[in-house]
Amino acid sequence: MNELPNLTDQQLLEAHEASDISAINGIVSLANILRGRNILSDAEASALYESMSLPLGMAKYADNPSVQDIQLNLDRLFAMVVDPG
Questions:
Q1: Is the pTM of this model over 0.85?
Q2: What DSSP line would sit under 15-67, residue for residue?
Q3: How does pLDDT run across 39-71, given as a tens digit for each residue?
Q4: What is the per-residue pLDDT across 10-43, written as a single tens digit (0 to 9) for each?
Q5: Of the candidates 30, 28, 34, which has an alpha carbon nearest to the alpha carbon of residue 80?
Q6: What CA–CA distance (Å, rounded) separates 36 from 51?
Q7: Helix or strand (DSSP H, E) at 72
Q8: Which residues contact 74 (CB under 8 A, 6 or more apart)?
Q9: CA–CA distance from 7 to each of 4, 10, 45 (Å)?
Q10: In Å, how far from its chain's centre is CA 81?
């Protein structure tokens, strides 16, 4: 295995942020595909959204502006997946 370069704290933070964004986008994209194929119900998509939102609302994270931004993005992405009707 290759050795990891000495990364700065900023580089580690940015890598973690990019990883989070990638994972969230992938999960929402998959949910959207499954909804389009009628494999995932609104209730199941809502449950997925709730499980992803739960840690973001925890007291130790909820006041963090970056976490609030993640929650807002998650809200917007899932609004496209779950049928509002």
A1: no
A2: HHHHHHHHHHHHHHHHHHHHHHTT-S-HHHHHHHHHHHHGGGGSHHHHT-HHH
A3: 999 999 999 999 999 999 999 999 999 899 999
A4: 888 888 889 999 999 999 999 999 999 999 999 9
A5: 28
A6: 21
A7: helix 65-79
A8: 24, 28, 49, 52, 53, 56
A9: 8, 8, 37
A10: 13
CA distance 41 to 44: 5
Q: Which two tokens stand for residue 49?
A: 């959204």
Question: Any idea which residue has 């970056």 for tokens?
Answer: 66
Residue pair 58/36 in contact (Cβ under 8 Å)? The answer is no
